[in-house]
Design brief:
By secondary structure, the protein is an alpha/beta fold. A four-stranded parallel β-sheet has the order 3-2-1-4, with helices on one face. Helix 1 links the parallel strand 1 and strand 2. The radius of gyration is 15 Å and the shape is globular.
C-alpha cells in the first residue's frame, strides 16, 4: 500500500561512516520505505567518502556534503521530510567558537532559545 506521507527526502546531519544510510537502503530493498533521496553531511573526509561509496554500492540516491553541518545548513535552503542520526554528544563549551556562533545564529533564525548550553 502506497503511503503518500512517507518521507521522500531524508537528512543525516552527522553521517559518520554511513550506518544510517545502510539502514535506509536496506529498508528500501525490503519495501518498508519508498525510494528516497538522502542528504548526508559529514565533516570528516574519510568518513564522508564511505558514505558516498555506500550510496553508490547500494543504489541509494545520496548527496554527501563534506563539511561542518552548521556551515552547510547556514547556506542550504533544502527542506526534509525526515532527519535520522545520533546526536554528536559533545559538551557545548568544547565546540569550536566558529561552530558555536553558527549554531547560535541558526537557533535565532529558527526562534529557538538555548539558554547558554
Amino acid at each position: 500500500m502506497k503511503d503518500d506521507n512517507a518521507p521522500k527526502h531524508w537528512l543525516e546531519p552527522s553521517a559518520g561512516d554511513g550506518a544510517f544510510l545502510r539502514g535506509i537502503s536496506e529498508a528500501q530493498v525490503r519495501g518498508e520505505i519508498p525510494l528516497a533521496n538522502v542528504t548526508a553531511v559529514e565533516r570528516n573526509s574519510i568518513e564522508a567518502a564511505k558514505c558516498s561509496e555506500i550510496g553508490s554500492l547500494k543504489g541509494l540516491r545520496t548527496e554527501v556534503a563534506t563539511e561542518c553541518f552548521f556551515e552547510w545548513s547556514a547556506r542550504s535552503e533544502e527542506r526534509f521530510d525526515a532527519v535520522v542520526g545520533n546526536p554528536p554528544f559533545v559538551r557545548y563549551q568544547f565546540v569550536e567558537a566558529r561552530q558555536r556562533a553558527l549554531f547560535d545564529q541558526q537557533a535565532r533564525r529558527l526562534g529557538v532559545e538555548l539558554g547558554g548550553v
